[in-house]
């Protein structure tokens, strides 16, 4: 599974809310996000006011699955 997060600082709370919603919806279907393999991809790297990858990792990656920045197309 891939969770795509927005790296703009102003979207940090929305990212956390979206991840919590995903966790809740999966639980309603009988799944536990922490037991499923997933990766977090962070987009919007070229925009101003982006969070460093390490901050995204601390706030979103509670299960220590891979997190990476999406590479923008030239």
Describe it.
The protein has 74 residues and is an alpha/beta fold. It contains two helices and three strands, in the order E-H-E-H-E. The chain has helices at residues 12-28, 53-60, and strands at 2-6, 39-43, 67-69. A three-stranded parallel sheet has the order 1-2-3, with helices on one face. Strand 1 (2-6), helix 1 (12-28) and strand 2 form a beta-alpha-beta unit. The longest helix is centred in the N-terminal third of the chain and has 17 residues, at 12-28. The chain is elongated. The mean pLDDT is 80.
How is this structure best summarized?
It contains 2 helices and 3 strands, in the order E-H-E-H-E. The chain is an alpha/beta fold.
Which features characterize this protein?
74 residues; alpha/beta; 3-stranded parallel β-sheet; 2 helices; 18% strand; elongated
Per DSSP E runs of 2 or more residues, the count of β-strands stands at 3
Q: Output the strand order for the largest sheet.
A: 1-2-3
H/I helix tally: 2
Measured as a percent range, the helix fraction is 25-40%
State Rg.
Answer: 13 Å
Structural class: alpha/beta
Order of helices and strands: EHEHE
How confident is the prediction overall: mean pLDDT? 80
Strand percentage lies at 15-25%
Low-confidence stretches: none
Shape: elongated
Major beta sheet, specifics?
3 strands, parallel
What is the terminal separation in angstroms? Answer: 26 Å
């Amino acid at each position: 599974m891939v969770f795509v997060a927005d790296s703009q600082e102003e979207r940090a709370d929305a990212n956390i809310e979206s991840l919590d919603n995903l966790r809740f919806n999966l639980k309603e279907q009988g799944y536990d996000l922490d037991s499923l393999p997933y990766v977090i991809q962070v987009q919007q790297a070229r925009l101003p006011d982006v969070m460093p990858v390490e901050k995204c990792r601390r706030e979103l990656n509670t299960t220590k699955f891979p997190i990476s920045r999406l590479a923008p197309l030239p």
